[in-house]
Amino acid sequence: MTPLARLLEAALFASAHPVPLADLKAMAVDLETSESDIAGALAELRDHYDDDGHGVELVEVGGGWQILTRPEYTETIERAQLAARPQRLSAAALETLAIIAYRQPLGRAEIEQIRGVGCGQMLKSLHERELIEVTGRGEGMGRPLLYGTTPGFLEQFALRHLGELPRADELAVALRDPNATPMRIESPPAGVDSPPPGIDVDAPYLETAR
Amino acid sequence: MDDVTVGRLRDGEVFVVELTQFSGPLDLLLSLIRDEQIDIQDIPVARIAEQFLARISSLALDEAADYLEMAARLVRIKAQMLLPRRDGDEAWEDPRAELVRRLLEYQQVREVVDILEARSDERRNRFSRAYLPRNFASPAPAAAALSLSLPELLAAVDRVLRAARQPGIHDVVPRTIDVTGAIATVRAVLALKSSARWRDLIASDAEPWQVLSVLLALLELAKLGELRLTQARPFASVEIASDAASQAA
Questions:
Q1: Which of B14, B111, B132 sits opposite A173 (nearest CB)?
Q2: pLDDT tens digits, one per residue of B94-133
Q3: Which of A33, B108, B175, B200 gives A37 a disulfide partner, CB atoms 3.0 to 4.6 angstroms apart?
Q4: Does any CB of chain A come closer than 8 Å to the CB of residue B120?
Q5: Distance (Å, rounded) from C-alpha B105 to C-alpha B26?
Q6: Which of A67, A70, A91 sits opposite B23 (nearest CB)?
Q7: Which residues of A touch B42 (CB under 8 A)?
Q8: What range defines the domain where residue A62 resides?
């Protein structure tokens, strides 16, 4: 491996969270590296892990890079109680996160309107888990807090960025009411058009009885 | 399956009713529609409202306001559907339209939930480096030079020295409890007189370890049947008497 790849390996090993490319570049500033050098070294490291039979691999997640163990060893490691998988989130928590991920920034009232249930406690606990954060205050009555997802959210859901979630018009069930507000993604990649209303694709479990 | 998980009520907390099966009234409604294989655009409101009510009462959920609100909404739509309307009345708006819109929107949310769930399962199956505790204080930047004048530095040294003049240093000396020795003492005392009191065995300036030793010795001897412990009333002095029966034997 090149010295740069070795340096990146050491840095990623030492870090508990995914490290963004920009941070890696800033660290390797002495070696006069460009971003493409870093990307090349990361690819080298990834191939090294993949080809030489390692128990860990290099994964791009949550806006950065991270060394993770391979899934085939998870059971054994957990049985030996060396590490524990985090708890699964409840369906209610996932619903709240899904709404925030697609509509951020948005306030509590809007979330509750979509879910049909009170979400105060849920928002608090998601905030404590650092999956969502307050991104600002909205207009209107009481200037409500607006919520958005965090880098921790991307990390926990193995997303490189929000654009990796399917666009609203790619979801099987589309809104058929042209006057309804379409769901949209605040996406980093360019060129996400607002979904065309009225795509008539039924989910398989919603067979019509007509 | 547990039908209802009732959140514990602590100060200032709202009462949380969470169904393990349904995450809200819209979820329940969607599941009814799915079970009945109904077209979501043409919901037979009367039937669904009836089933919804039956379901929430059988789930002992009637205290949950969110479900009740949906039940009320369904009943209202059902009533609106019953109002007579003229044929070809252009202005008539389907009272179910808002509900349908919400259901479709909610269904989309559920779809995203499935995607998120699959992704989180994928991530859960990999461990990252996990040694760093969450509340680990970030180390202060060491490279920054101190901007201090000499008098300031000396004053600081002085403060530190004054604070350290009487450092609270404690020597921790291991003191084992001497039960065997205490048993010997108790036996010797009881050999002299047939009954004794607590203060006959313990000097007034006894250290805690001595008190503990004697206490354990007394309990041990009582267990062995060599003596009897009696107390006339609560907090009275304890009478220690050698057990005549065991003496005879």
A1: B111
A2: 888 888 888 888 988 988 999 999 999 888 888 887 654 4
A3: A33
A4: yes
A5: 10
A6: A91
A7: 210
A8: 3-79
